[in-house]
Every structure is written in structure tokens, then in C-alpha cells.
Amino acid sequence: MSAAPPPALHLRGITKRFPGVVANDSVDVILHAGEVLALLGENGAGKSTLISILYGLYQPDEGTVELAGKPVRIGSPAQARALGIGLVPQHPLLVARHTVAENLALGSGAALFPARGVAARIRELSGRYGLEVDPAARVSELSPGEKQRVEIVRALLGGARVLILDEPTSVLTPQEAQGLFRVMRELRQDGRSLIFISHKLDEVLDIADRVTVLRRGKVVGGVPTAGATRESLAELMVGRSVDFTRKRGTGTTGRDTLLAVRDLAATGSRGLPALRGVSFDVARGEVLGVAGIAGNGQSELVEVLAGLHPATGTVSLDGVPLPAGAQARFRAGVAHIPEDRIHSGTVPSMTVAENVALRQYDQPPLARGLARDLGQVDDLARREVAAYDVATPGIHTPSRLLSGGNIQKLILARELAGSPKLILAVHPTYGLDIGATDQVHRVLLERTQGGAGVLLVSEDLDELLSLSDRVGVMVGGSLLGPFPVHEVTRESLGLLMGGAHPHSLPGAEPGVVGGGAA
Ligand SMILES: Nc1ncnc2c1ncn2[C@@H]1O[C@H](COP(=O)(O)OP(=O)(O)OP(=O)(O)O)[C@@H](O)[C@H]1O
To answer: What pTM does this model have?
Structure first.
């Protein structure tokens, strides 16, 4: 009688402690050959820590990693790759001015692996797994989805048998996400093992065979996805039932204009036009959604409105032209939840309390003359940390030690503290778990009920469709629409983002972009 083969990967009793927190607490995870395992958990549950251990970025305090039944030591990412563990990062690490083949040859040691040989291997892998990667294409011309496929090819070139995909769909259109899932199915068919991290439960149900759920550093359960539902997975994650009903309730957007933007033009960081004559209004109480593939001007639009980027054209709030400069705009009632939450949203070396107080530091009651009232700073921080449920060992902890989701809550607490009139929210729930996402959505909608307007830039089309009153699409620095939300669908937005003309969409008819309601 022969014993069953050992699993492709077995994490046994992994414990990792950081000051004040046990990030992984005796974690056991099994991954079989030819399986897609989703790792689920709230923000701060310990997913990134576990992945970092598997990829050799951290050493566990206790526990072992076994590959095909053999204990291994993974001292660095290079060792992880040599052992057949590949990571597809959330943000591809590619040199824009080089071709795909040059990038992959560079990464694998050019002397051993000339670009010509690499090109042939890329073509072979790309054909085998339906990856559609052109080795001669210049990286600067690739879409986010194409860059991601290059990273997958890189991992496969390195011989990965275990592939970690960390929130891989967050930068993709729905069509591209389906393309990625097709590739993942091919890889699984080929006997490779995949670990998939996502906060989007529909995707998890679609692509994963099994889920393992972490809560506060511990494995709290694991189930096959066959027979699971969005609700059952959410409950396993947060330990209580979660309401998934659509939240947009107002529908009765006031028609008086809050924000009027006319003919905005700006150049991007590389000196090329980033905004080409953008005009639109946001009404009081309205959520205006902005969809688009990264790099089509959304970032510049928000930075211009926040007073961080120069532009020509006019911007007025409540009929008054907005003053220049970020701090002056904040005082005029413009809040900004930025795209790069770690670097432009917080000062990582400062404490949680200092980061909460950042916008009000020079104002009473926090400022007394030239001095700060540190008691007031701490009181404000304690109130906001409690109100937004920020998980932190304390208010004097440096913010860089918080998980991504908790940093985002910190920014929201700070930006929304002064009852802004206009909220510029860029990917406000990016990387947030369902509980925190729900909280952010409710906070934004509460503010619209109080008369604030929201400009919501998001790559999550479900989020745009469930919160927005109207949705526009940024393509090549121009804004298409905005269209009333009931006139667009996930599919039509995806096609517009990809460059389709509104009138050319399947099923397009007057008043409806791309057919029926969402
Ligand atoms: N380098 C570090 N130093 C101190 N604490 C850390 C460090 N890295 C992570 N932590 C803490 O460990 C816990 C687990 O964090 P981790 O980033 O693994 O969670 P996560 O599940 O990936 O969360 P998210 O979904 O928000 O990315 C959190 O409480 C976090 O604050």
C-alpha cells in the first residue's frame, strides 16, 4: 500500500512575532499540486507576513516550511526562487524603457541567459499558458494586465512550481481579470500550485479550489469553495454575518452644483499631456465615480483638484474659485484620500497620533501659539482611532508598523475630521477587507447625505457601480461621460476603459451605454 504523496507545500506551526503583536500564531497551511488556494483574512490578519516568510523576506520565530515533504530553509527571495517559489507582485518591477525580453534577461542574469534565448522561452511559455506576452514589446507601452503577465512569465522562467499572486486583480479590468483566471486554470492543470490573495470574494469563489482563513494571526478555518457562498466566506473571515446589499441609497442627488471643473489641462510627470480639456460638475450630495485603467489621467485629475499639481482651466467650489496650494484647498473644504497611502498619505516614521493631527497641527485647539498641546493631540488621536476602529498597539506607535488597511483608516479619520465639502477619494478601499470596505462606504455615503460631494476614483468597478450616482471614464487624459449609473454595466465600463467608443459597444442604444442596467 503506497502512502499519499506529500503536499506540494506544507507550512507547519509558523509563528512570527512583532513588537506588541503575534502576526502569525502557529499557522498551518497545506497546498496540493494542481490546486488554487485562496488566503483570506481581514486587514492585519497576517496574510502578508505569511507570504513574506514563504518568499524568504522574513524568518519565522517558530515552525517549518516543507516542499514536497522536505523541510527547507528560505533565507532570501533568491533562495525561494531557487526552490521553485515565485511571487507575482502587486506592482510589477519592470524597467519601462527596456523590452520584455531584456527585462526578463536582466532579472535572470544576462550572462547566462541572453535576451534572444529568453525571447524564445517567453514565446514558448506564453503559447503554452495563453499568456499573450510579446518579448519584443517595450514595457512602457504595456497595460497593467500585460505587465502582470510578464511577471508571471518571469516566475515561470525561474521554474516556479508554487506561485503566489498577491491581490493580482486589483489593477485589472473585468475582462483582464477573466484572462488572468484562464491562465491560472492552465497553470493548475499543469500541476502547479497557486496561492491567491484577494479581498474580492466573488473572485475567490470563481478561481480558488479551497480557502484558508486567517483571523488575528491564527488559522480559523478552511473550506472548499464548492458549496461556499460570499456570505459564508465573509462570516468565516469576520466571525459574524455581513450585509452585502447595495448601499447607494440617496439616488436623489441635489442638482445644485458644488464643484465646477472647466477645461482642465495638465502635463504629467514625463512632460506629456495628462489632462486634455476635462470639464464636469459634481452636485451637492453626489458621488461621481471615475473609472479608468491606471495612467489615463485619473491621478493627475485628483492631484490638480487637491492643489498638488499645476494645470490650466478653472475649478470652483460653491461658485468660488479654489485657492492654490494643498493646505489652502483643505481649509476651503477639499479632503484628499490619496492613491499612495503610505508615502503621500502618511509620514511613516511619525506616530499614529502625529499622523491623525497632521492637517490640524497649526490650528487651535492643537496649537497654542507656536507650541502644540500634546494632550489635545492625544485626545484627538484616541477619539479618531476608536471611531474608525484602527488596529494599532497604541497611539504612539509609528504608523509604518500598521497593516495597509489600518493606515487607510488612519487617513480617513484625519481627512474627514473637518467636515469637508468635497472628498477626493482615490481607491479608498484598495486592499481593505470587507468589514473595513463596508465602513468606508458607509462613511462616504453619510457625508453625501450631509451635502458633501465625492469624486470617487476606483479600479473596482463593483464599488463604482454600487456607490456612484454617475460614472465617467478617463481615457488618454479625456473624460467620457459622466453617464448616469443605471446606463452603464461592468462590461460596458470595461470596454470603454479599454478604448472602445461609447456608440460601438454591443447592445448600445440611445441612452444606454452597452445595454441593460447593472
Ligand atoms: N514589520 C512589522 N513590524 C511590526 N508589526 C508588523 C510588521 N509587519 C506586520 N506587522 C503587524 O502584523 C500584523 C499582521 O500584518 P499583515 O500585514 O501580515 O496583515 P495582512 O493580513 O496582510 O493585512 P492587509 O490585508 O491589511 O495587508 C498586523 O498587526 C501588522 O500591524
So the answer is: 0.73
